[in-house]
Design a protein that fits this description.
Layout: H1 2-15, H2 23-35, H3 45-55, H4 58-77
Helix pairs in contact: 1-2, 1-4, 2-4
């Protein structure tokens, strides 16, 4: 889940100029988004395969994109860096 969310954040950073891209804001966006997405922990190959299949579902990717967008907007409005 974390890798997918990181990739989604990078995609949004590439397409948007209105957000801070410093490390602090990136980490805040990641934390905010992950805290609002369901956890997906796997310890077996079978679990890993199931998770990969789930990632391919359009709704799953839409959920990640939605939460990253919300995180970007929240962090943009509440920046904690100096």
């Amino acid at each position: 889940m974390e890798d997918i969310t990181r990739r989604n954040i990078e995609e949004q950073f590439e397409s948007r100029e209105d957000i801070c891209k410093c490390d602090r804001c990136k980490m805040d966006i990641l934390a905010y988004a992950l805290n609002n997405l369901p956890a997906r922990y796997v310890v077996t190959d079978r679990g890993h395969i199931f998770t990969k299949l789930k990632e391919m579902e359009m709704q799953f990717m839409a959920d990640v994109t939605r939460e990253v967008y919300k995180a970007v907007e929240f962090v943009k409005a509440h920046q904690r860096h100096q």
